[in-house]
Write a structure and sequence with these properties.
With about 675 residues, the chain is an alpha/beta fold. Helices cover about 40% and strands about 15% of the residues. Helix 1 (about 35-45) packs antiparallel against helix 4 (about 240-255) and helix 16 (about 475-490) packs parallel to helix 17 (about 510-525).
C-alpha cells in the first residue's frame, strides 16, 4: 500500500482526486494543542473518555432525513416520529423534550409528493403543518462546477402531535422532482433530483445547515430557539454532524473564526448516533473531495490531515472521514459520536462480531461495545396502531366492498377464522375480475392468481401464510422459495391440506421473477399446491393489512434484520412469524412461545447463531428455514391447541415505546447518564 501526504491546495481545500491513490494518512505529531485535540478526538469518543454532562432538562434535537409524519420510506422514519412523540408524552411535564429537525421536501416523484405555500407544509404522508419562519442562514457549499456558493436555508417551526418540528427549506437540495437519469429504485427523499443532487450530497448539506443553525443558537442569534443539549443523529443521513461539531469547531478556533464560548458549547453537545442498518452508509467516491471541501471549506485539508481514527486492525479506517479512498457519511459519527445506538441488542452483537454485518466498522464498534459507548435498544411501536381495531377493520371492509372483516383479540380468535375465509374470497375475486383488481389494487401486479373460493368452507384446516415485505435480497424470498420446494418434495403429506401462500411486496423485478418461478416450479410438482400460491409485486396498505388479518403465519426469512417491524405488526394480529434468528428477530420472537425461529443462522457460510451440532446438521439457511417452516406447519396440523396458545401469547405481547422499561425509558436513561 502506498503511503503519501494528503494533497491540498494553498487555500486549504483538498485537491480534486486526492483520494485516488488509495492511500492512508501519515498523522504527524503536533505541538499545536488544538490540532492535538483533533487527533485524539476519535480515541476519546470511542473509549468514552469524555465525561457525560449533567443534563437537568433534556432539550434534544433529533436530526432525521425521514419522518413518518412528512416523508417516510422505512423504519427509521417511524422511529423519527414515534420516539419524540412518546418521549414528550411521557416526560414533557418534567420539561424534557425532543424536537425533530428535518428537510422540508417539495416536489413530486410520482409516488411521493410534498408542497409548501409559504404558510402550510403538506408532506408526502398526508400530514400538514402550519409553520412560521425562524431564521434564514447562508450555507456555503460547492456546486456542480466546484465553486463555493452561499445557499440560503430557511428554517421553519411547526407543531405536530406534541412535537416541535424544525424544517430546513432549500429548493435546490430538498427538491424531490426526479432527474431524467434517476434510477427507478430511488424514490422519495432518495431521488437524484432535477438539480442533479444525489442523496449523499443532499444530506451532507442538511448536516452542515443544522451545524450552522446550532452555531447561530450558541451565539444567541435565534430568539425563538434555544440551543439543544443533546443531538440525536438518525442514521447515516446526519453522519457528518459529529465531524462538524468536534473537528470544524476546533479548526475554526485555529483560525480565530469562532469565539471560545461558542466553540465550547458546540464541542460539548453530546451526539447520539442511531444506526439502523449498517449496509447503508452514504458512500460517494466521485464527490469525495467536493463534499469534504463543502463541509469544512478552506479548513478541509487541516481537518483531514488530523482526522485520526481510534487504533484498530482495519487499514481501511485509519481516517475518520473516509473509508479507504471514499467519502463515507456514517464514518464520522461512528468514530466521533459520544454514543452509538443500534436498533436491537442482538444486532449490536452481530455488527461488533461479524464482518458480514459490521463491515468496515466492526472493529470500531467492538471497541465501543467493550467501552460502553455502543448500545442496543429495540425500536418501539405504537401497539394501538397495529392491533386489530374497529376503525381500521371497518375501513378495510368498506375499501374492498362487500367483504366483512371482523375485529378480534386474543380472547376471540374464532373471528380471525372469519377473516381467513374473507381473504380467500378476496384473492379469488382478484383472480377472476380484472375490473375489480384495477379498482382496488391498481398498482399491484399479480401472477396467475387462481379462484380458490371453494376452500373457504374448510379454512380451519388450511394454513394461511403470507409475506408482504419489500422485494429485496435482504428479505430472503429466495430462501423461502427453496424451503417451500424442499418441503413439497420431502415432507408433503397427502392427508394434510397444502398451505395457502401469499408472497410479495414493492421492490426489485428480479425478486418478483423469483417468486413467479416458485409458482411455476411448484406447478410441475403439484398443480393442487401451485393453485394455492399467490405472488404479487407492489404495495397497498389495505391489501397487506387484510392479509395479516387472515394469516396464521408470517414469513421472515431475512438475511439480516437490524430490528424489524413487520414481525411486531404480524404478532399483534395473531400472525405468528416464521423467522431467521438474526438481529432484532431474536430479541422480539421467543421460539415456540409466540413465533418460530431457526435453530441456527449463517452468513457467508459462517455460523452466527445456534449450536455447532445444529449447524453441522442443517448446514445452511435454506435447510434451517425449511426445518422451521415444517415445525410451524406440524404445529398447525398436529397440535392446534399449542398453536392457539402461541397466538394468544403473540397478541398479548406489547412492543409499545412506553411499556414498563420500554424503549422510551431506556433512551431517557441514556440521555441523562450516557449509559444503560
Amino acid at each position: 500500500m502506498n503511503i503519501h501526504k494528503t494533497k491540498s491546495r494553498s487555500d486549504g481545500f483538498l485537491q480534486e482526486g486526492f483520494n485516488k491513490k488509495k492511500a492512508v494518512n501519515i498523522f504527524q505529531p503536533t505541538h499545536n494543542p488544538l490540532l492535538a485535540t483533533m487527533q485524539k478526538a476519535g480515541k476519546i469518543q470511542c473509549l468514552g473518555k469524555k465525561p457525560w454532562p449533567q443534563i437537568n432538562e433534556i432539550n434534544a434535537w433529533m436530526l432525521s432525513a425521514e419522518t413518518a409524519t412528512f416523508m417516510k420510506w422505512g423504519g427509521l422514519g417511524m422511529v423519527a416520529s414515534e420516539l419524540p412523540e412518546n418521549f414528550n408524552a411521557s416526560f414533557g411535564r418534567q420539561n424534557h423534550a425532543i424536537s425533530i429537525i428535518t428537510p422540508m421536501y417539495t416536489g413530486n416523484t410520482g409516488k411521493k409528493s410534498a408542497s409548501f405555500d409559504g404558510k402550510t407544509y403538506c408532506g408526502s404522508e398526508t400530514y400538514a403543518a402550519e409553520v412560521t419562519k425562524i431564521k434564514s442562514i447562508k450555507v456555503p457549499f460547492f456546486n456542480q462546477r466546484k465553486t463555493l456558493t452561499n445557499y440560503t436555508v430557511d428554517f421553519y417551526h411547526g407543531l405536530v402531535n406534541g412535537v416541535n418540528y424544525i424544517f430546513a427549506a432549500n429548493d435546490r437540495f430538498f427538491s424531490i422532482n426526479p432527474h431524467k437519469d434517476n434510477p427507478s429504485t430511488q424514490d422519495g427523499c432518495y431521488v437524484l433530483n432535477e438539480h442533479n443532487i444525489n442523496e449523499v450530497e443532499r444530506f451532507a448539506f442538511f448536516s452542515k445547515a443544522v451545524y450552522l443553525l446550532l452555531k447561530e443558537c450558541a451565539e444567541g442569534n435565534v430568539n425563538t430557539l434555544s440551543c439543544p443539549n443533546i443531538l440525536i443523529a438518525n442514521d447515516w443521513h446526519s453522519g457528518a454532524m459529529a465531524g462538524l461539531c468536534k473537528y470544524d469547531t476546533v479548526a475554526r478556533l485555529c483560525q480565530n473564526a469562532i469565539s471560545d464560548k461558542t466553540a465550547e458549547i458546540l464541542q460539548n453537545i453530546p451526539i447520539i448516533h442511531i444506526a439502523h442498518h449498517l449496509g447503508y452508509q452514504g458512500w460517494d467516491f466521485p464527490n469525495t473531495a467536493r463534499i469534504l471541501n463543502s463541509l469544512y471549506e478552506h479548513r478541509a485539508a487541516m481537518v483531514f490531515k488530523n482526522a485520526k481514527a481510534v487504533k484498530n486492525s482495519n487499514p481501511r479506517t485509519t481516517n475518520t472521514l473516509i473509508v479507504y479512498d471514499c467519502y463515507n457519511q456514517s464514518s464520522g459519527n461512528f468514530h466521533l459520536a459520544d454514543r452509538v445506538v443500534t436498533v436491537s441488542k442482538n444486532y449490536m452483537e452481530e455488527v461488533s462480531k461479524e464482518l458480514g454485518f459490521g463491515f468496515d466498522f466492526r472493529d470500531i464498534l467492538k471497541i465501543r461495545k467493550n467501552h460502553r459507548t455502543f448500545f442496543g435498544i429495540v425500536n418501539g411501536y405504537a401497539k394501538r396502531l397495529i392491533s386489530p381495531n374497529p376503525k381500521k377493520i371497518d375501513y378495510i371492509s368498506d375499501y374492498f366492498q362487500n367483504f366483512k372483516f371482523k375485529v378480534y383479540d386474543e380472547n376471540s380468535l374464532d373471528k380471525k377464522l372469519n377473516n381467513k375465509k374473507e381473504c380467500i374470497r378476496l384473492l379469488s375475486l382478484l383472480a377472476t375480475s380484472e375490473e375489480y383488481k384495477k379498482e382496488t389494487i391498481p398498482l399491484i401486479d399479480i401472477y396467475k392468481f387462481r379462484d380458490i373460493s371453494k376452500l373457504a368452507d374448510k379454512a380451519d384446516k388450511i394454513p394461511f401464510i403470507c409475506a408482504t415485505s419489500r422485494l429485496v435480497e435482504q428479505k430472503g424470498y429466495d430462501i423461502a422459495a427453496k424451503a417451500i420446494i424442499k418441503i413439497i418434495k420431502e415432507k408433503s403429506d397427502a392427508r394434510q391440506e397444502f398451505p395457502i401462500f401469499v408472497l410479495g411486496g414493492a421492490g426489485d423485478i428480479e425478486q418478483y421473477k423469483l417468486l413467479q418461478n416458485l409458482k411455476d416450479d411448484v406447478e410441475k410438482i403439484s398443480k393442487k399446491a401451485a393453485e394455492r400460491i399467490f405472488v404479487f409485486r407492489g404495495y397497498r396498505d389495505e391489501f397487506a393489512y387484510a392479509l395479516q388479518l387472515a394469516a396464521d403465519f408470517y414469513l421472515m426469512p431475512s438475511r439480516f434484520e437490524p430490528c424489524g417491524l413487520t414481525q411486531m405488526e404480524a404478532m399483534a394480529k395473531g400472525s405468528l412469524p416464521i423467522a431467521m434468528s438474526t438481529g432484532g428477530l431474536v430479541d422480539t420472537i421467543n421460539d415456540c412461545e409466540d413465533g418460530f425461529r431457526t435453530e441456527v443462522f449463517f452468513t457467508g457460510g459462517i455460523k452466527v447463531y445456534g449450536s455447532n451440532t445444529k449447524a453441522q446438521k442443517l448446514k445452511n439457511n435454506v435447510n434451517a428455514y425449511a426445518d422451521t417452516l415444517y415445525k410451524a406447519l406440524k404445529c398447525f396440523y398436529v397440535t392446534p391447541n399449542v398453536l392457539r396458545l402461541m397466538t394468544v401469547n403473540a397478541m398479548k405481547k406489547d412492543f409499545s415505546w412506553t411499556v414498563p422499561n420500554g424503549s422510551v425509558y431506556q433512551y431517557y436513561k441514556l440521555f441523562k447518564t450516557g449509559n444503560l
